[in-house]
Design goal:
This protein is an alpha/beta fold and about 250 residues long. It has two domains: about 160 residues, Alpha-Beta Complex (Spore Coat Polysaccharide Biosynthesis Protein SpsA, Chain A); about 80 residues. It contains eight helices and eleven strands. Helix 1 packs parallel to helix 2, helix 6 packs parallel to helix 8 and helix 7 runs antiparallel to helix 8. The protein is globular. The mean pLDDT is about 95.
């Protein structure tokens, strides 16, 4: 069965090489680039020059689902593997996909998150590590939805593979904080557009509850200092989403 890989990029010169090399077993590579200004495009052309590929420029405009759906519409094969630029398909997963009989309409891929050189096993990332996220899909089996933290929606059957995608986000605290600020703004706009209301109690209680759930109930503390930092900063993300959403309504009423 022929597979197309779809990758979204925006100034990913540090990550895109490893990502591309891990999906070279696919029959086609489609990159949807949000007008990168670094060496991302040059690296892509160099790595995939011997492979059928497309480099398509399209403005993200705060809509990751739209970007993925655009990539989905541009592939030539019936099966599509979605990989983020800071992710790598593990050798185990590669072997599993190559032997796959494709009896389902979509497959969830388990993900291992590496934070500051350490694999996180608990807390925020434990669910996708156990249950996976839908990333290998039949072209007409569904569609992506959600401006940020988007998911693939399908009414078809979804099976879970055993191999892992390896995720290497936030190489530095500066990068993490920049990502949190960017994604919290996108999420706040999305909630505002859907009419979600928030009050000061929500601004305080949601981040606290999220930290306690991820760090204590989901055993994030077992991951050591990295687990604490990750749980704390993801709770800070939750705080920023609701604080920005609250500010939107205050500005509107003013």
């Amino acid at each position: 069965m022929k597979i197309s890989a779809v990758i979204l990029t925006k100034n990913e010169e540090k990550n895109i090489g490893n990502c591309l090399r891990s999906v070279m077993f696919c029959d086609e590579i489609v990159v949807v680039d949000d007008y990168s200004t670094d060496k991302t495009a040059d690296i892509i052309r160099r790595v995939v020059r011997s492979k059928p590929h497309k480099i398509l420029q399209r403005k993200l405009a705060g809509d990751f689902a739209g970007q993925r759906n655009f990539g989905l519409s541009e592939v030539n094969n019936d099966w599509v593997l979605f990989v983020d630029a800071d992710e790598v398909v593990s050798p185990q997963l590669k072997r599993e996909i190559k032997k796959l009989k494709f009896n389902e309409d979509a497959y969830a891929l388990k993900r291992r998150d590496f934070f500051w050189g350490k694999e996180l096993r608990y807390g925020e990332v434990s669910r996708v590590r156990r249950r996976g996220i839908t990333r290998l899909v039949k072209k007409k089996s569904g569609y992506w939805q959600g401006n940020v933290h988007e998911i693939f929606y399908t009414a078809k059957s979804v099976a879970v593979l055993n191999g892992f995608i390896d995720h290497y986000p936030h190489p530095s605290l500066k990068d993490f904080l920049h990502s949190i600020n960017t994604y919290s703004s996108l999420r706040a706009v999305e909630l505002y557009d859907h009419g979600v209301k928030v009050n000061l109690f929500d601004v305080v209680s949601f981040p606290l509850a999220k930290f306690l759930y991820n760090y204590l109930l989901s055993l994030g503390f077992i991951d050591g200092p990295e687990g604490f930092v990750y749980a704390f900063l993801m709770s800070f993300h939750s705080f920023l989403v609701r604080a920005k959403l609250y500010q939107f309504y205050q500005l509107k009423s003013g």
